[in-house]
Every structure is written in C-alpha cells, then in structure tokens.
Amino acid sequence: MARNELRPIIKLKSTAKTGYTYVTRKNRRNNPDRLVLRKYDPVIRRHVEFREER
C-alpha cells in the first residue's frame, strides 16, 4: 500500500533554538499552511512553539 501524499510526514522544530524536533503527520487539505503547535521541549523543560520545517 503506497503512502498518501495528502498526509505527509513533517518535522516540528523548536523555536527555543534547542534543536529538539518532533516528527508527525499532517493533513494538507485541512492545514495547507505551515503548522505551528505548542509542545513540550525537554531540553529547556517548558512548553514552547514548534514550527513546521521543510
């Protein structure tokens, strides 16, 4: 079964400049823009924004 390009794998990189990343999938039909989520960064031990990188 082929992977669907409608839900690509993306990397979410921390805006706190720690280099920590999360890997997830997103739905391009619902979220065509770059994704921004507020998640936990274990390097600095607090919640920060993570932005989609390409």
Automatic annotation (TrEMBL):
One Pfam assignment: Ribosomal_L33
Domain of life from the UniProt record: Bacteria
GO molecular function: structural constituent of ribosome
Entry keyword set: Ribonucleoprotein, Ribosomal protein
Entry GO CC: cytosolic large ribosomal subunit
GO biological process: translation
PANTHER family cross-referenced by the UniProt entry: 54S RIBOSOMAL PROTEIN L39, MITOCHONDRIAL (PTHR15238), LARGE RIBOSOMAL SUBUNIT PROTEIN BL33M (PTHR15238:SF1)
Entry's family note: Belongs to the bacterial ribosomal protein bL33 family.
HAMAP family listed in its UniProt record: Ribosomal_bL33 (MF_00294)
Protein name in the entry: Large ribosomal subunit protein bL33
Organism, as annotated: Nocardiopsis composta
